[in-house]
Amino acid sequence: MGDKVSRRKFLRDTGVVATAVSAGLAKTRSAAAETKAADKITVGIVGTGGRGCHLMRTGLLRIDDCEIIALCDNYQPHLDGGKKFAQKADTYVDYRKMLERDDLDAVVVTVPLHLHAQVSIDAMQAGKHVFCEKTMAYSIEQAHQMAKTVREVGKKLKLQVGHQRHYDPSYQHAVKLARDEKVLGRINHFRAQWHRNNDWRRPVPEKDPGGRIKDLERHLNWRLYHEYSGGLMTELGSHQMDVCNWIFDSLPVAVTGMGGVDYWKDGREVWDNVQVVYEYLIEPENAVFYVPDPDSRRHERAKDYGELSKPYQIRAIYSSICANAHDGASEEIMGDHGTFILREGKGLFFREGSAPTLDWGSRGEKEKLAGKIATVITSGESHDLSNVPQEDEGEPVSPEPIEKRVEQLQFENFFDCIRTDREPDCNVQIGLNATVCAMTANKAIREGRRIEIDKSLYNA
User: Fold this and answer.
1) Which fold has domain 7-166+411-426?
2) What's the pTM value of the predicted model, to 2 decimals?
3) CA distances (Å), 42 to each of 6, 55, 130, 156, in order?
4) Which residues are CB-neighbours of 160 under 8 A, at least 6 positions away?
5) Residues 123-133: pLDDT tens digits?
6) Check: CATH 3.30.450.20 for 168-400+436-458?
């Protein structure tokens, strides 16, 4: 951070100074502010409700080289709740006032979905780096506006999107195993679900203690109304379809879906269950296209039918429900050699009986699920899982635990990108892709038909 130019010069060089000046945002850094910024990255949080406080507690407050100096929320109980985690931070009810601070380096955007784009764009135009919670935007059009702003402000400003699985070592290692080491063989199916048993509803007081909010029901339960929310596909599904895009290294070409309000008859507008099927067309040169052993019958058959040079189709099935939590949240990636089951902090590998034996080292870690034997995916080598010593091998080696929360890992990446001027692992393009996935699924459900996805929608 020591090579920062003044905020005014930065805005002038990136062509947005007119916007900043009109909003009263372009100011010159003091020498003290420059020195302080070289030591710690200063952060402001817009939206200190449940998610904002969660990110402070599990992520930001665990990182030494950042300092939360500003909190903003127009609902006083949320602002008071945020103050408990960042007692020295100044508080605001209008985020635009917060953006006037010239000693503010980065903004964390955790407001309701329909406000993501406007707050993020305003923050970038004010010369701030932005971490925006998923889903990146309320609409595909808003996501494109955010991408346009990223281009306009230039590479010195970073926009990172909160699809945190990109920072989970288990997921990172699984992607490497699938795409680089081909342990799944030819991937041919994806299945994911996020099943919970709750009403997704927050209690609503009779009146706003701060006297600012007219409709507390819609303000606090915004996830239940179309005006503010994309429902299950944006709040949950975008996370998991991002994993599918990532591991396939591809994007869906069509989507079909169904959904309804079939259980929680409480006045909500968004569906309490969705079932979606995405269609992917995988190009031969893609990392997940793999036909093993040139001497095998499978390879000869693929060659005879021209499969080595033709794209092939994969369908990805997604479901989310709100009245049963048995399956929880996970992603399953299936190939002709095996299956991954991925969850936050943990991954399992099930080998197909017809697949060649894999070299997992002398201690291939095992776990039983439903009578099947799985190998546990760790961030490095896989090891035997056992609670008792093995006489022939001595003490069993347990997987190396992940000591940091994934929220901390994603913010460490964000701050490192700011300091080193590199692109975030989960950047605006990845955020746009996940937005397109979620919004086209919602469109398919609303219209009750198969939607072909125009490739241009993915162009950031």
Assistant:
1) Rossmann fold (3.40.50)
2) 0.84
3) 16, 15, 12, 16
4) 130, 131, 132, 410, 413, 414, 417, 424, 425, 426, 427
5) 999 999 999 99
6) no
